[in-house]
Each structure stands twice: as C-alpha cells, then as structure tokens.
Amino acid sequence: DTAGHASGGYTTAAAAAHFVLVPMMAQGHAIPMTDMARLLASTARRGLVVTPVNAARMTGFAAGVEEAGLPVQLVELPFPAAEFGLPDGCENVDMLPSKDLFSNFLLACGALREPLAARLRQRRPPASCIISDMMHSWAGDIARELGVPWLTDIIYRKNLLKSLTDDEIVKVSGFPTPLELPKARCPGTLCVPGLKQISDKIYEAETRSDGRIMNSFQEMESLYIESFERTIGKKIWTIGPMCLCHRDSNAMAARGNKASMDDAKCLQWLDSKKPGSVIFVSFGSLSSTDPQQLVELGLGLEASKKPFIWVIKAGKKFPEVEEWLADGFEERVKDRGMIIRGWAPQMMILWHQAIGGFMTHCGWNSTLEGISAGVPMITWPHRSEQFVNEKLVVDHLKIGVEVGVKGVTQWGTEQKEVKVTRTAVETAVSMLMDEGEVAQEIRMRAKDFGMKARRALEEGGSSYNNIKLLI
Ligand code: UDP
C-alpha cells in the first residue's frame, strides 16, 4: 500500500515490513548491500547479517544509520573459518591468502544457514522478505522454510564459452541491441578447486528465487532491463544507483573500509586543484594489477602532465612497486600527483568538483558511482563482467573512452606482463581531459546521465517508486 505517503515514510503497513539482508563478504558486494539497507530503512525495518570482522568494518555505516535514526540492526553471526581450513579471522574475500581457498570460503558462508535460520525462527513474524547475494543460495532455503519471498541481487549466467578460441566472437543473445565480445574479453569462469559444484548449486537455486533487485535505473538501460525481465520470467526492481543514499561528504567518506588517508587532507588537496582537472585512478577492492603494469600506468600518468589521484593496493604483496615509487617517481610528480596506498574514500573523491575523469576497472559499483557523479571514464577492465560494463560506458552511453585492454587479468593470478603501455595511458587521459570536441561531448553526456541518476532516486523518480513498490 503506497497511498498513505507521508513525510519521509510511506504507510504503517510498509513501516512494519522487515527485510533481512545477507551480503557476500567482499567489499564490492557488501558495500552496495549497506547502501540498500539505508534506502529501504527509510521506509521499513532492516536486519543486515554480518560476521564480527565485517561488522567491525561497518562501524562507519552503523554510526551513520544510528545518527539518521534508521531502523537497521546488524545481526552478528560467528564465522566458522577454522572449520573450513581458513586462517583465523579470515572473513572477507579480500583476506583470503590464495584464491584456491575461495570454495572453502563459500562453504563456510553456507554454514551460516542454520545459525541464521535459528535467529529468525525466534522472531514473530520472522521476516517479511530475505534479500541475499546470489552466491548465498542457501538463504533461499531459509526463506522457503519460513514461507517468505527470497530476492537476490547478483546475476549469474552459465558459461557460453566452452568450445570457442580466444579470437572468436561471442554473441550474447537476449539483448535488444547486439552484444558481441571476443572470447578473451568475456567473463569466463574462475578457475579454483571445488568451485564448479558450488556454482552449479547457485545456478540451480537461481531459478527458484522470487525476483531480482538490480542496482541500476530505468533511464539508463530500460530496454535491457525489460528484455532481461522477459528472459528470466521474473520481476526485476531497479532501485539504483544505491550509492546515492549518501549525499554529504562525511557519509560518503565513511562508506566501506576505513580510509587509509585523512579525508580532510584529501579534500584540501582537491580544493587546491582547478574544477574538472584531476584524473582519479582506482581499480576496486580486489585489484590484481601486476607490478610491471602498475609501473607502466604510473609512467603514463606522469607523461600525461595532468593532476591525478592514484589508489594503489600493491602494499606488502608487491614490494617492488613501493621501491619504484620511492625511487624518484613520487618526487617527480609531487606537485600534481597524490598516491593513496590502501583504501580510498572513493565516493567522496568522485563527487569533488576537481575530478574531471575516472580511470576505472569497471566494477559495477565503481561504474555506477562514476555515472552518478557525472564523471566521464577511462575504462580498464580486468575480469568478470567488467568488459561488458566497459561496452555499456563506451559504446552504449558514450561517456568514456577505453584504454584498450585486450584480455582478462584473473583475480589472484600473477600475470607478469604489460598489457597497456604508458603511451596508451597518456593517449586515453589526453582524449578524455583535453578541450577537444569529442571530449566535451563525452563530458556533457556524462553530466546528463549523472542528473538522470539523481532524479531516479528523488521523490517520484523511477527507482524511488520501485523502492515503494518493492516494500
Ligand atoms: N572502494 C572504495 N575505496 C577503495 C576501493 C574500493 O571506496 O579504495 C569501493 C568503491 O567505491 C566501490 C567498491 O569499493 O563501491 C568496489 O566495488 P566494485 O564493484 O567497483 O569493484 P570490486 O571491488 O568488486 O572489483
């Protein structure tokens, strides 16, 4: 019932709705779930299921919802790391010592099923709806036991690629416009022991979910959303861009992990730069760019002569990158380059008026954050669906240029080769940041999509209405 819409909320019936959210513990999955919690909690009660290490990473989020008086409860469950051969305290994908332990990690997540079911059985009523990451197909079993709907967020597709060679073109059917990619740029399957069995279960469970929640918005890709809805034969609610639940720079900075640099210093640095002059370079939370490639990227940024913020997560893993940075690079670019080692307050940075371009790995969250901020992009996909997101940004929305990546860099697999040269980096930065006509058109379109994104979540907008309908 959406008739009784009053200030800030909807109806008493809606206010009684109680969603239980079960995020995958990887920052690219957990962060959008916390955003979803904020969005739904302005109108319904929410429980967000987490484990202790992840709860500690959500202190910024917890403080934010408390301050805003939003009815969100963090439900903490102990994580059985040791039982599944994982190091003590290893509760997030970014803490895995090797990707070979990924299946163990998923099995340990699956072991949360009984403790969560027990917690929910104690409640009267237990929940109105369970929303889980697609990887937690076991959450669907709890929903069936409790007789409540189960919605999922992440979409999995079966591997279409088995018999093709790298140069062959894969045609993905079911889209309103042709989607074609060389096999080498297709998502592919992660090669880790024991994953096939788990993925088969996930694919099978997917057919039983009651619908999908998509972190997207109608005005950006309505034809694709409709066509996907027809293909899967299930309701899809687009309620994004969910990152737009944050509107001020403090809330943006508190999103995700604790930033490894002082927010105020970062803002001060940005304030000292001209509007639209800085390029922001960041490759997500699980970045696997190899050391030589990082050096080449740095040399390209230096050659571009533009101000930049570069987020590097090489750290202890690649000491050679640290050595190279210290061996003259940082000194040479000190007047116009800021390097953030570790976690950056990405949203806060993207929203600053000094940012004129975003060099991104095209993770879906980063892509949407760039779009929402109205910032044009340089696309540098690494793996998974990032090459498809690149197509959306460059070919469909026309709000970015590609740096020219030809093949996948698998997560956790060392690839000691340079795929993108410093010249390619320099060229892409110039193309996007210079005053040419093409760059200006890209900038205008990016601004326009940013406005559309914001409108989607304002009162009466498509995503705002979908949140009401979902509740
Ligand atoms: N992120 C951030 N600071 C960082 C790295 C990542 O705030 O230093 C956030 C980013 O804003 C996004 C998420 O982490 O919300 C990464 O998700 P995405 O889907 O872009 O990529 P993934 O990490 O899953 O590859």
TrEMBL record:
Can you provide one Gene Ontology molecular function annotated for this UniProt record? UDP-glucosyltransferase activity
Entry EC no(s): 2.4.1.-
SUPFAM superfamilies per UniProt = UDP-Glycosyltransferase/glycogen phosphorylase
Keywords for this entry?
Glycosyltransferase, Transferase
Cross-referenced InterPro entries, in alphabetical order? UDP_glucos_trans, UDP_glycos_trans_CS
Tell me which domain of life the UniProt entry assigns to the organism this sequence originates from: Eukaryota
- Work out whether the entry's keyword set contains Transport: no
Annotated PROSITE patterns: UDPGT (PS00375)
Can you tell me which family this protein belongs to? Belongs to the UDP-glycosyltransferase family.
Designated name of the protein: Glycosyltransferase
Which species does this protein come from? Oryza nivara (Indian wild rice)
